[in-house]
Structures are given as structure tokens and as C-alpha cells.
């Protein structure tokens, strides 16, 4: 005797498959649309949109969506910088102020500012070339004062001191750089550190307030000594194609770092 076909089950199965493919197509459309918005909304020297920076070098890009940006005539951005999404860049206490003839915020060449970071320059802030700033870092030249115990702190006139971050630094996630900080060359600031005052060249600082935990000098090298081996440099003459091939081999467990490159290069 032939079995009776379950019309409801067939309809349910077809509806489920249809819903799956509809959602998948819609998802791809949304992702493609958002990628287009990000590309179109990003800011470069060739396509600055409404922003008119005092200077903006070639190859520099501010990712979309932007954070708060004002006082841009007094903001100078170097070449080949990457400014992540939702990064705040401000010069002056508020928009539409005349801050004089000189730039207030100077960012050197090759600087990377991670997503959600803030650089607040109410007086001079300088970030040297080739600095890498992690996400959600806060750099400010202004701090609240609390001299008068009878007035709300937010109503008291703030204190301002210039900030300088030397070239080649790495500022870890969530670090805070306070007014008056002067960070030397090639300094590592640990994640979550709170930096104020002078930091010497080639140092590692950590903590709140940040303190020097390791330093390099020509006479003694790193003190305390580094506990990890130095990274293996890429041999001269290695092509991008070789690096891609090596990466695929390493993922399969067939090669260690840089295995076989010396023989090819």
C-alpha cells in the first residue's frame, strides 16, 4: 500500500531551505555593502571629505567610521599612517577656535593608531614616526585640576602640558599617556600603563604609574636580560611568493620558521 505524502513536512523543509538561502544572500549583501561604505567613507589626502587637515601625507588613511575629529587645520599627519576606526583626533578645547599659526598635533610618518584610541591635543602633542599605538589608548595634554575643594572638578580650569612620544615606540592596548609625558625613542609601554614624566630611550615601562622595568644601553645591553630568543630575521633575497609558500607549509606542520629558505635564496 503506498504511503501518504506528508505535505506539511515537505513544505516545512522547502521553507527552511528557502529561508537559509535568503538569509545567506542577504548577509553577503550586507557585508558587501558595509565594505563599500568603509572604503568610500575612509579619509585620505586625495579624498578628505569634509576634513581639512593642516597637512596629510601620501598613503595616509583614516578608517571609517571616524571618531570625533575637530581642529583639523592644526593637525598634521605624516605619510603612510593608518588611523583605525573610531579614533578621536582633536586640537584645541573645542571646535572652531583659532589656535594660531603653528600645528598643535603632529603625527609623524608611518604611525599606526589602533581602533578606539584618543589623541587630545589642547596644547602641543607630538607622536614620532613609526610609532605603533594599540587599540583604546588615550593620549592627552590636558588634565582636570581640583585646587578649589568647593568647586566641582569639571568646572575648574584644566592644566595643560605638552606631550612628546619619540619615534619607534610601541604603546600597548589601553595605555594612558598623561600631560607632560616625554617618552623617548623605541620605548615599549605595556598594556594598561599610565605614563607621566620622562621615559628614557630604549626602555620598557609598565604599571600605574608606569615605571621602567627593563632598559637597553650600549654597554650592558638589555637589563634585566631578555627571557625570549631574538626573532629570526628574514634572509635577504626572499620573495613574497616564498613567504606565502612557507606560511602554507607551516600551517601544515611541514616546515619550521624559515626552513629551507637559505637553500633557495
TrEMBL record:
Highest rank taxon of the organism: Bacteria
Family: Belongs to the transferase hexapeptide repeat family.
Matches recorded under PANTHER family: ACETYLTRANSFERASE C18B11.09C-RELATED (PTHR23416:SF23), SIALIC ACID SYNTHASE-RELATED (PTHR23416)
Assigned EC number: 2.3.1.-
Organism placement in taxonomy: Bacteria, Bacillati, Actinomycetota, Actinomycetes, Kitasatosporales
Protein name: Acyltransferase
One GO MF term attached to the UniProt entry: acyltransferase activity
Keywords: Acyltransferase, Repeat, Transferase
One Pfam family here: Hexapep
Amino acid at each position: 500500500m503506498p504511503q501518504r505524502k506528508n505535505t506539511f513536512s515537505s513544505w516545512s523543509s522547502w521553507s527552511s531551505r528557502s529561508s537559509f538561502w535568503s538569509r545567506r544572500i542577504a548577509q553577503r549583501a550586507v557585508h558587501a555593502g558595509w565594505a563599500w561604505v568603509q572604503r568610500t567613507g575612509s579619509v585620505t589626502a586625495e579624498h578628505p571629505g569634509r576634513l581639512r587637515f593642516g597637512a596629510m601625507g601620501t598613503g595616509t588613511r583614516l578608517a571609517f567610521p571616524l571618531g570625533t575629529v575637530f581642529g583639523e587645520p592644526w593637525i598634521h599627519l605624516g605619510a603612510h599612517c593608518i588611523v583605525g576606526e573610531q579614533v578621536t583626533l582633536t586640537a584645541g578645547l573645542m571646535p572652531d577656535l583659532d589656535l594660531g599659526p603653528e600645528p598643535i598635533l603632529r603625527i609623524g610618518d608611518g604611525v599606526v593608531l589602533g581602533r578606539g584610541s584618543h589623541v587630545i591635543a589642547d596644547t602641543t602633542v607630538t607622536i614620532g614616526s613609526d610609532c605603533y599605538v594599540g587599540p583604546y589608548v588615550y593620549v592627552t595634554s590636558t588634565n582636570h585640576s581640583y585646587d578649589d575643594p568647593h568647586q566641582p572638578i569639571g568646572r575648574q580650569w584644566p592644566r595643560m602640558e605638552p606631550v612628546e612620544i619619540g619615534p619607534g615606540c610601541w604603546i600597548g592596548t589601553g595605555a594612558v599617556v598623561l600631560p607632560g609625558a616625554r617618552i623617548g625613542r623605541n620605548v615599549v609601554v605595556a598594556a594598561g600603563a599610565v605614563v607621566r614624566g620622562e621615559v628614557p630611550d630604549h626602555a620598557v615601562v609598565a604599571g600605574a604609574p608606569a615605571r621602567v622595568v627593563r632598559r637597553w644601553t650600549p654597554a650592558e645591553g638589555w637589563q634585566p636580560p631578555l627571557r625570549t630568543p631574538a626573532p629570526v630575521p628574514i634572509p635577504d633575497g626572499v620573495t613574497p611568493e616564498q613567504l606565502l609558500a612557507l606560511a602554507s607549509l607551516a600551517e601544515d606542520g611541514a616546515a619550521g620558521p624559515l626552513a629551507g629558505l637559505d637553500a633557495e635564496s
